[in-house]
């Protein structure tokens, strides 16, 4: 188990053998994507003659592209493959006739020491020209990583957005009846593969969140029947109490540089926000207003913190400087606002809006303007940003059963997409882009 | 709720936090299966429940639980009467401690409900202290919305889940 985890971190994907195409970026398939674009993703040939791996890689790329909502992948099932030589020199007419606007092709080369290189090409079928190419060298066991990197290359080149498909998700895996639910931290690739549990379920755990480098988690656990914040090393599994003693600490998040953790501490019926070094030290108090100040989240530049407080009488969103100064309310719509999270691009804050018998995920600017609601259900909450700031993952609780399910939604709208978890899930945290 | 199985990660926590009375038996940390079959929640490794004493509290004080209105943590007259009876019981049973545990209904966000549960637990604890129970014998925990007793998604169920429970522990 741990060796698999380590592999993800310790084996960087080397860009090998190909220089990035330096041609102009403007092509007719870029920009203004409204309807999903048809992209052919045929099975890839392999230097070893093994057709299985090239088909599996194409399946992962196809699935990744479909998950973005921007593409309608064609293949690998139902369309023909191509020869090794045609991987970099496609017969455009074939793919035009298949109805594709773009083609993802490539090949798999088996190297020494159990390594493979995935050569990934993207072509504009309509214009008959290459848009991008890159090679990804990985251990053969990590072929999925290479496929995700190829899909990210395609997504990024065609959408103009930063990549986000080669990422992981941690969340609270929930099993068992509503009044005795077992909650474990689980980690998986963002397409649901390589799923494993990081805590055994003896103690209830909540709100796991990645460090900015993706190598640590901060979360809350009831181990010892004492709810407190812990930091876990994802690779080794070791964990450490954040604030020594029995103080009730919760709602933790890393600062953008990973050096600090901001969290809530409750005492005597009052909850305030504190910040402490990620490796320990004396917590520094940032809020002191009577009320429940919680769910703090740093801006990506580290200069400000958004949080929620009920100091006005209902849960509302506030922004303050990193040192606690200049606390200013930013939410003024009807109902209540909760669990704000600052976008990694800085220009939006995702939140949970409570009102009208529903809990909905929305976004607004850090100044409080431009509010848009992205979901509509009985109870959606707990937003977490994709590293490119284009998608928000959250969890949806079913009325009655209380069963929780992870979803992701584009900030540009559209239907939320259910995340492929093997069991119920809540409190997702989207990792940064894998190394 | 199961009791006192202390394994693996819990041991780390015990080392990390200064405990007055460490458990008598601390098994060595062992490798946990990734997905142990039949795993049940066990959050009570540190504060040990005393079921017989708990039953005695319920019998003598009338109830171990007080209830709250939506998003509120003030005690009504009935709750105060219950807690006053609980205080008398704690004073008559000086060998045990109380873990006052606050809960919220499911219709709130997770982290806010943790804060709300702490307010409720604290309100009950403060009343017990005002009625003579030494503060050093009482601790508080918030379970937020994580431990409902009523399963429905309706006002009747939520009213039962908005509560503070006095759990007798040693």
UniProtKB/TrEMBL annotation, chain A:
Q: What is its main location?
A: periplasm
| Region annotated Disordered, chain positions | 413-435
TolB N-terminal domain residues are 25-131
Instruction: Report the InterPro entries cross-referenced here.
Output: 6-blade_b-propeller_TolB-like, Tol-Pal_TolB, TolB_N, WD40
Domain of life of the source: Bacteria
Signal peptide positions are 1-19
Q: Where in the cell is it found?
A: Periplasm
Quick check: keyword Transmembrane helix in the entry? no
Q: Which GO terms describe its biological process?
A: cell division; protein import
GO cellular component, as recorded: periplasmic space
Keywords recorded for this protein, A-Z: Cell cycle, Cell division, Periplasm, Signal
**Quaternary structure per UniProt?**
The Tol-Pal system is composed of five core proteins: the inner membrane proteins TolA, TolQ and TolR, the periplasmic protein TolB and the outer membrane protein Pal. They form a network linking the inner and outer membranes and the peptidoglycan layer.
Q: What is the annotated role of this protein in its UniProt record?
A: Part of the Tol-Pal system, which plays a role in outer membrane invagination during cell division and is important for maintaining outer membrane integrity.
NCBIfam families referenced in this protein's UniProt entry, alphabetically = propeller_TolB (TIGR02800)
Q: Which family does it belong to?
A: Belongs to the TolB family.
Task: Give the protein name, as stated in the record.
Answer: Tol-Pal system protein TolB
Organism in which the protein naturally occurs: Sphingomonas cremea
What gene does this protein come from?
tolB
TrEMBL record, chain B:
The region annotated as signal peptide is 1-18
Q: Which Pfam families does the protein's record reference?
A: OmpA
What is the topology of this protein in the membrane according to its UniProt annotation? Lipid-anchor
Where do the record's region annotations for Disordered lie?
Answer: 23-44
Q: Where in the cell is it found?
A: Cell outer membrane
Cross-referenced CDD domains: OmpA_C-like (cd07185)
Q: Name one GO biological process term.
A: cell division
UniProt domain OmpA-like: residue ranges: 55-170
Coiled coil (UniProt feature):
none
Q: Which InterPro entries match?
A: Bact_OuterMem_StrucFunc (IPR050330), OMP_bac (IPR006664), OmpA-like (IPR006665), OMPA-like_CS (IPR006690), OmpA-like_sf (IPR036737), Pal (IPR039001), Pal_lipo_C (IPR014169)
- Cellular component GO terms, alphabetical: cell outer membrane
Keywords attached to this entry: Cell cycle, Cell division, Cell outer membrane, Lipoprotein, Membrane, Palmitate, Signal
Say yes or no: keyword Membrane present. yes
State whether it acts alone or in a complex, and with which partners, per the record: The Tol-Pal system is composed of five core proteins: the inner membrane proteins TolA, TolQ and TolR, the periplasmic protein TolB and the outer membrane protein Pal. They form a network linking the inner and outer membranes and the peptidoglycan layer.
Q: Which family does it belong to?
A: Belongs to the Pal lipoprotein family.
Record NCBIfam families: Pal_lipo
Its annotated function is as follows:
Part of the Tol-Pal system, which plays a role in outer membrane invagination during cell division and is important for maintaining outer membrane integrity.
Q: Which PANTHER family does the UniProt record give?
A: LIPOPROTEIN YIAD-RELATED (PTHR30329:SF21), STATOR ELEMENT OF FLAGELLAR MOTOR COMPLEX (PTHR30329)
Q: What is this protein called?
A: Peptidoglycan-associated lipoprotein
- Species: Sphingomonas cremea
């Amino acid at each position: 188990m741990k060796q698999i985890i380590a592999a993800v971190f310790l084996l960087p994907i080397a860009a090998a053998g190909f220089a990035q195409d330096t041609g102009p970026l403007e092509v007719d398939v870029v920009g203004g994507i409204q309807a999903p674009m048809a992209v052919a993703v045929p099975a890839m040939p392999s230097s070893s003659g093994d057709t299985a791996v090239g088909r599996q890689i194409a399946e992962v790329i196809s699935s990744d592209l479909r998950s973005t909502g921007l593409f309608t992948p064609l293949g690998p099932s139902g369309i023909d493959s191509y020869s090794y030589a045609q991987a970099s020199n496609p017969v455009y007419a074939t793919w035009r006739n298949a109805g594709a606007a773009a083609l993802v092709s490539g090949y798999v080369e088996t190297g020494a020491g159990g390594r493979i290189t995935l050569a990934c090409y993207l072509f504009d079928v309509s214009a008959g020209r290459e848009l991008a190419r890159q090679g990804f060298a990985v251990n053969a066991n990590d072929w999925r990583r290479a496929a995700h990197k190829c899909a990210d290359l395609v997504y990024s080149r065609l959408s103009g957005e930063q990549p986000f498909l080669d990422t992981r998700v941690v969340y609270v895996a929930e099993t068992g009846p509503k009044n005795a639910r077992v909650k474990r931290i689980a980690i998986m690739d963002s397409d649901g593969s390589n799923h494993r549990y990081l805590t055994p379920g003896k103690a209830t755990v909540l709100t796991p969140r990645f460090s900015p480098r993706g190598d640590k988690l901060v979360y809350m656990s009831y181990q010892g029947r004492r709810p407190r914040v812990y930091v876990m090393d994802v690779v080794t599994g070791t964990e450490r109490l954040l604030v020594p003693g029995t103080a009730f600490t919760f709602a933790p998040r890393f600062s953008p540089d990973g050096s600090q953790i901001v969290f809530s501490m409750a005492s005597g019926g009052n909850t305030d926000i504190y910040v402490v070094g990620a490796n320990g030290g004396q917590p520094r108090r940032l809020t002191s207003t009577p009320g429940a100040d919680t769910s703090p989240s740093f801006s990506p530049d580290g200069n400000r913190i958004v949080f929620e407080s009920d100091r006005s009488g209902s849960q509302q969103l506030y922004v303050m400087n990193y040192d606690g100064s200049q606390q200013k309310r930013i939410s003024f719509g009807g109902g209540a606002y909760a669990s704000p999270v600052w976008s990694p691009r800085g220009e939006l804050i995702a939140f949970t809006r409570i009102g009208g018998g529903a809990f909905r995920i929305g976004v607004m600017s850090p100044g409080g303007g431009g509010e848009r609601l992205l979901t509509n259900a009985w109870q959606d909450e707990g937003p977490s940003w994709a590293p490119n700031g284009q998608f928000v993952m959250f969890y949806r609780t079913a009325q009655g059963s209380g069963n929780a399910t992870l979803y992701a939604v584009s900030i540009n709208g559209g239907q939320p997409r259910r995340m492929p978890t093997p069991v119920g899930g809540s409190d997702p945290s989207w990792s940064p882009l894998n190394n | 709720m199961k009791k006192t199985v202390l394994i693996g990660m819990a041991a780390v926590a015990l080392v990390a936090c200064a405990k007055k009375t460490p458990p008598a038996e601390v098994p060595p940390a062992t490798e946990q299966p990734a997905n142990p079959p039949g795993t049940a929640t066990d959050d009570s490794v540190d504060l040990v429940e005393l079921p017989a004493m708990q039953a005695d509290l319920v019998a003598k004080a009338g109830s171990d639980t007080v209830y709250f209105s939506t998003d509120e943590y003030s005690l009504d007259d009935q709750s105060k009467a219950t807690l006053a009876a609980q205080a008398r019981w704690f004073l008559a049973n000086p060998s045990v401690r109380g873990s006052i545990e606050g809960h919220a209904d499911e219709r709130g966000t997770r982290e806010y409900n943790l804060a709300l549960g702490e307010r409720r637990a604290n309100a009950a604890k403060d009343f017990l202290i005002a009625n003579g129970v030494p503060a050093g014998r009482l601790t508080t925990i918030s379970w937020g919305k994580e431990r409902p007793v009523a399963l429905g998604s309706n006002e009747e169920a939520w009213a039962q889940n908005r509560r503070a429970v006095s759990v007798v522990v040693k």
